[in-house]
Write a structure and sequence with these properties.
Alpha-D-Glucose-1,6-Bisphosphate, Chain A, domain 4; 5 helices; 26% helix
Amino acid sequence: MLATLLLTFAALAADPAAPHAHHGIVASYNGAPPAVPLAADDATRLAAGELVLKQVRTGNGGHGVAFMDISAAPAAIWSRIVNYGKYPEWVDNVKACEVYRRDGANIYTRFVLDPMGMNVEYFIKHTYNPTAGWLTWTLDYDRLSDLDDSVGYWRVTALPAAANGVARSRLEYSVDIRFTGWIPGFAQDMISKHGLTNAVTWVKQRSEGG
């Protein structure tokens, strides 16, 4: 199993000079991502400081959504999320991250992950609307990524301040990933489920801790 996984990653060959194999196989967001309802017990867990995580395996990939309440204002949280140059320092398994183009609300970013020591390189087009409280993304299909597809979003919503006056916000993160080639289920879960948990956790830590 491990040998198969290593061979799969070894075959990956991202190339910024070549176009991606397609222009999207996962439905992308046109404007704000749709609201995700929370059950009463979800709201209770969030109020208690817990992570709420929902995940679904779909075909050769998976998507999920993670929620967490943070003791910080939305502006402080966004300042961490879009500080891509800091990702290798702040985010587990991010080996490199750099913005290579800005075009209005669009931010184009190169990522290199190293799960299990294997480099996975991909290119993301973010659409950033902090006034409306969301950021969505797809692959940059003008460049060849090691991922087959990736679509997702961040949403930050202001909450009533705490009793001590500290600002509070609800962070929401969702990602739908499709992998190139066959990857075992445990590896899909490692990248997708761990990624969901890690994403909201590092943002909370950096937003509350400076």
